[in-house]
Known about the structure:
- By secondary structure, the chain is of the alpha+beta class.
- The chain has six helices and six strands; from the N terminus they run H-H-H-E-E-E-H-H-H-E-E-E.
- It has a domain at about 125-195 and about 230-275.
- The protein has helices spanning about 35-45, 55, 60-75, 170-190, 200-215, 220-235, and strands spanning about 125, 130, 135-140, 255, 260-265, 270-275.
- The chain has a six-stranded antiparallel β-sheet with strand order 1-2-3-6-5-4, with no helix packed on it.
- Keywords: Signal.
Amino acid sequence: MMVTGYLRMWGLSGLLLASGLATAASCPQPGTDYERVYCEIVARGEGGSLPSFDDFRRNTPQVQALLLKRQASRLGIELPMPDHSEPVAAGASSPEPANRERPVAPQTVTQPVPAPVAVGLEGCALQGPVIRCPHRRYALANNLPNRALDEGVLADSNTLGLPVFSGDASNDTALRQYLASAYDHYILKMLDIGLGGATMSFSEFYHNYQRHRASGVDYAQRMEQTFQLLKHDKRTRAVPARLTDRLPGSLEHCSGIGAQVVVCDDVGTNWVFVDDGGR
C-alpha cells in the first residue's frame, strides 16, 4: 500500500527539489529501499520531476517517501513506511540536536553533550504527548486534515516568505541569529498548513542552509519551492496525523518559539508542541 510520507521540510528536513532531471545514468548502486525505488522509477522513465540522486539521498526517509510517492503510486510500486531506525544513506549527514540558544555542533559530532532544560521551560515536565508547565500546557502538534485549517492557507498565494540573509556570512553570531529567526518563521508556517507533525529540526535547518550556501543555492528560494510543493500535496493527498509513535525522552533538547510553541528534537525526529490553553 502506498504510504504518504511527509517530511520533517524540508526534512523539507531539508527537502531538496530537482536541481536537474533525474536520469538512469545518474543512479549509482542504491543502498536503501527508497534509493532502490528511486532507481526503479528513473529506469521506467518516470523520474523527470525527481531531484538528482545525490540530492535525493541527503533527505530523511520521510522526505524521500514524499518525493517518491506520486510516481510510485502511478507505477504500482509499494513504498514502505519511513522507519526511524533506517540507516542514513551514504552521503547524508546526521547533525547533532541543538537548541537554538546554544552553538550548533559540527556534523561530525554524533553524541550530544547533555544540556540543561532550556530557559523558559524550568518547572515544566514532559508527560508523553504533553509538556506541563506551572502556567501553561503544550500538546504535541499532529498533521491536521484540511477541514481543520484556516481558509486559504493552502492557496498558491500563501508563501513561506523566509527572509534572505543580507549580512556577513563569516559573522557566525549574526548568521545564527538570522537562522534562528528564520527557523521560528518556518515552524509557524508549517503549523499554519497543518504539517506540525512533519517538520525538520533546527540542526537540519542550519546545516541545510550551510550546504546550499556552499553550492551557491538561494536557501530561501529553495525552501519556498518546497513549501509550494508541500501545499500542493496537502491539497490532494491524505496525510497521516503522525509519522512516528516515538516521543521525546526529556526536555533536554527543547526550546521555545515565543510563548506558544516548544520544539524538541533528537536528530532523527522533530516534535512541535503548541499551547492548547490547558493547565
